[in-house]
Amino acid sequence: MTTRYLTLLGATGSIGVSTLDVVARHPQRFAVHALTAHSQWQLLGEQCVQFRPMHAVVGDPKYVAPLVEYLRRNSCGTQVHAGVDALCAVAGDPAADTVVAGIVGAAGLLPTMTAAATGKRILLANKEVLVCAGQLFMRTARESGAVILPLDSEHNAIFQCLPIKDDGKMNIAGKGVKRFVITASGGPFLETALDQLALVTPAQAVKHPNWEMGRKISVDSATMMNKGLEVIEAHWLFDIPAAQIDVVIHPQSIIHSMVEYVDGSTLAQLGTPDMRTPIANALAWPERIVSGSEAVNWLSAPKLEFRAADLQRFPCLDLALAALREGESAPAILNAANEIAVEAFLNNKIKFTDIARVVETVLGRCPRGAVDMLDEVMAIDANARAIAQESIWKLH
Ligand code: NAD
Ligand code: MG
Predict the structure, then answer these.
(1) Which one of 81, 185, 325, 340 has the minimum C-beta count within 10 Å?
(2) How many whole angstroms separate alpha carbon 270 and alpha carbon 90?
(3) What is the spatial distance between Cα 341 and Cα 257, in angstroms, rounded to a whole number?
(4) Nearest to 148 by CA among 186, 187, 110, 122
C-alpha cells in the first residue's frame, strides 16, 4: 500500500475534523503533510501535535507566535506560516499528492485553484469554488491531470452511483444517465409557518436536524441556498446540463442522492448522515476503508419521505437555479452576495428572510463580466461583495 501525503485546507472546520478522524484510523495509509486554519490556532496546535505535519498555516500573522510557542512546548517541529501565499504554497507543494479542500467560501478559491493547477488529487468540499469558477477550475484540473473527488455527500453519492473508471473522469457522456436526483433535508424550517420565517434566530438556523456542520453551510441549508449551490456544483463536476438535475426534499437524509438511467433504473447511495462516509470513500478511492461511521439499521430506520421543494419557502434555491441558467458570472455574484448576507444574518444585522432579498438585489444590480481568468473571478466577487454590503446598509 502506498502512503498518501495529505494537505488539509481548513483542518479545524467540520470537514477538517471529520477528515482527521478518518485519517487517524489508518496511520499506514495516510501521512499529514500540512494543516491550515484561519483563526483557531489552539485546535490547529493540538492537531499538529497529534499528526506531526511538516507545515501549518494560519490566516493571520498574529497567530504565528502563539502557535510556534505552543508547538515548542510540545516538542513538535512543524513549521508555521501565515497568509494566502502560504496556503497556496502548501496546496501546490510537490511533497503532498492529495489536497482536502475544506475551506468555507470563496476564501478557498486561490489555494484550491493552486491544487488544481499542480495536478493533485483534490477531495473537494469547498463547493463555492465550483460555484464561482466552475469552468475555470475544471479546465485547470483537466489540463494538469488533477483528479477531483467529491466530498459533498450528494456529489459523493452520485459519484458512487456512476460507472467511473479508475482515472476518475466523471463526465456522464455515453453512460445512459437520464437525470440526477439531488436530495435535500429541507433544513430546520421545513415546517415553520411562512410568516414566522422572518423571526427565526441565527441559533435556530444553525441547528440542522440531521447534520453537524459549519455555521455558513448550516444557514445555507436552512435557506436551501446550499441545494442551489450543489446543483451548480453537480453541473460542473459531472458536466451535466442543469435541466437534467432535479432536487427532491427527503427529510431523513438517508438517501444522499440518486442517478436515474434511461432504462428506468435508479441507483442511490444510502447511509447515516455522517460525513466520514463520503470522506473515507474519497480518501481511499477506488478502495474502501473503515470510516468510523455506522451503516443504517433498516429495522429501526425512519420511514423515508419525499416531496417537492417549495420555492416560495426557499427563494434562495430559485435564485441559485436561475443564476445557473443565466451562466457566466451570475453564479459568482450569487455566491458572493450570499456569503455577505449570511454573515450579516449570523451577526444579527439582517433578518433570515433578508438573505434572499439581498442576493436578489445584488443579482439585479451587479454588472456581469467574464469569468475565464482567476483575476476576473476575483474582481466579480469583490464587486458583488461591495454591492451586497451597500444593500444591507440600505435595509436599515
Ligand atoms: P467550517 O466553518 O466548520 O470550517 C471552515 C474551515 O475553513 C475552518 O478550518 C476555517 O479555519 C477555514 N477558513 C475559514 N475562513 C477562512 C479564510 N478566510 N481563509 C482560510 N481558511 C479559512 O466549515 P465546514 O462546515 O467544514 O465547511 C467547509 C466547506 O465544506 C464549505 O464549503 C461547505 O459548503 C463544504 N461542506 C461541508 C459539509 C459539512 O458537513 N460540514 C458538507 C458538505 C460540504
Ligand atoms: Mg451537501
Answers:
(1) 325
(2) 34
(3) 28
(4) 122
Tell me, in angstroms, the distance from the centre of ligand 2 to residue 145's CA. 25
* Closest ligand, as measured to the CA of 218: 1
- The per-residue pLDDT for 209 is 87
Quick one: pLDDT at residue 203?
97
Q: Which ligand minimizes its atom distance to the CA of 210? A: 1
Q: Is 12 in the pocket of ligand 1 (CB under 6 A)?
A: yes
- Below-70 pLDDT ranges, the chain: 166-167
pLDDT in tens, 361-385: 999 999 999 999 999 999 999 999 9
Residue nearest atom 21 of ligand 1, based on CA coordinates: 38
Q: Which atom, in ligand 1's list, is nearest to the CA of 212? A: 40
Q: With a 6 A CB cut-off, is 147 part of the ligand 1 pocket?
A: no
Model pLDDT, residue 171: 84
Q: What is the pLDDT of residue 395?
A: 86
Q: Is the peptide bond before 286 cis (omega within 30 degrees of 0)?
A: yes
Q: Please tell me the number of the ligand nearest to residue 230's CA.
A: 2
Q: How far is the centre of ligand 2, averaged over its atoms, from the C-alpha of 90 (Å)?
A: 26
- What are the contacts of 196-205 at 24+ separation with CB within 8 A? 197/313, 197/352, 197/353, 198/351, 198/352, 198/353, 199/351, 199/352, 200/352, 202/345, 202/346, 202/348, 205/345, 205/352
pTM over 0.70: yes
Q: If phi over 0 gives left and psi between -120 and 50 gives alpha, with beta otherwise, what is residue 332?
A: alpha
Mean pLDDT (the chain) is 97
pLDDT at 1: 79
Place of cell 420555492: 311
- Scan for cell 414566522, then name that residue: 196
- Residues surrounding ion ligand 2 at CB below 5 Å: 152-154
Ligand 1 pocket, residue 102 CB under 6 Å: yes
Place of cell 411562512: 194
The confidence score (pLDDT) of residue 396 equals 76
Q: Is 358 within 8 Å of 334 (Cβ atoms)?
A: no
